[in-house]
Amino acid sequence: MPAFPGGRHSGLMAPLDRPNVDTDAIFPKQYGRSTARSGYGPVLFDSWRYLDPGDLTSDHAQRRPHPGFVLNRPELAGASLLLARENFGCGSSREHAVWALRDYGFKAVVAPSFGDIFRQNCALNGVAAIVLAAGEVDALFAMGVAQPVRALLDIEAGVLEAGPARFHFSLTPRERLLLTRDVDWIGATLAQRERIAEFEAGRLACQPWLKKTLEK
């Protein structure tokens, strides 16, 4: 099942007003002892979300939630879009961070910029990393002061709508394919087989000696 069947999604937007959120804050390392891709939602933003520390033996439903943390606000229960500041997902290349976001229920993160590896991991794991200008992100944060913002995300058109506001963003063709079709990284590459064949033909025409090397 693709992350965005039909290419669109509407949901509440949770505003996380912190810059430079690294992958250890998103998913603390003490929980990363498994390669399972699910079950990490309860420890997303663990050290900010709870007042008491947790470990692999914790019953997270019994831990004390931090009343001031955005994901613990009752009116944002079920939020599926995360609004963040610049350089979100910086730090280590911890794929578990994206797994935790997805497992919590987030379909997309909207920010002015992302850590490069984190952004690549997002598309590979069904989470859209949406880049908007800093001023546009400021506007979305301002909209959420009075009441929660519900936004419509159109992956194919590259448009995010929130109330009367309309913002445009860009995704690579591969990102759009991974998010809207039931394919993995290999499938996304094979979808470009005609372009790959055209490139190979042109390369051999310019460097014919490579043909003998390839035939060995």
From TrEMBL:
Its EC number is 4.2.1.33. This is 3-isopropylmalate dehydratase. One of its GO terms (molecular function) is 3-isopropylmalate dehydratase activity. GO terms for biological process: L-leucine biosynthetic process. InterPro entries: 3-IsopropMal_deHydase_ssu (IPR004431), Aconitase/3IPM_dehydase_swvl (IPR015928), AconitaseA/IPMdHydase_ssu_swvl (IPR000573), IPMI_Swivel (IPR033940), LeuD (IPR050075). Heterodimer of LeuC and LeuD. Belongs to the LeuD family. LeuD type 1 subfamily. It catalyses: (2R,3S)-3-isopropylmalate = (2S)-2-isopropylmalate. It comes from Ramlibacter tataouinensis. Residues 10-133 form the Aconitase A/isopropylmalate dehydratase small subunit swivel domain. It comes from the Bacteria. Pfam families: Aconitase_C. Pathway: Amino-acid biosynthesis; L-leucine biosynthesis; L-leucine from 3-methyl-2-oxobutanoate: step 2/4. It is an enzyme of class 4 (lyase). Catalyzes the isomerization between 2-isopropylmalate and 3-isopropylmalate, via the formation of 2-isopropylmaleate.
